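Hi P.,

Sorry for the delay on this. The queue was packed all week, but I finally got your sequence through. Input first:
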Amino acid sequence: MLTLPQDYVDEMIAHAKEDVPNECCGIIAGKDGAATKLYRAINAEASPFRYSVDPKDLLRIYRDLDSNGWDVFVIYHSHTHTEAYPSPTDIRLAAWEDALYVIVSLEDDENPVVRAFRIQDGEVTEEELEVA
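Then the structure:
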């Protein structure tokens, strides 16, 4: 199970809406199974169908993670016109096997859907998401 604070979920949804028509992306740091900080990132792809974290943002985030002793806990991105489920591209590019992947769907932009997944060796498992 993944537990995220309500303000992190609200922030991911706001980020997704602000970056329309493109997908947004970001990272949530964690320590001992708990979320510690949300980092918005620039989608270097600037695409409605793909994302990759801008290298400068990634370096900034890694430095902060390292200085605080945190780990990459969650990688999040949005789907602007499809469901909150990993696409074949998402699955193929999922390199962080220890991280969870959160997808914010704006398929119905008035009712965003947020879901969490573990992606390992091409296998997708949905994780229960608890908002606290």
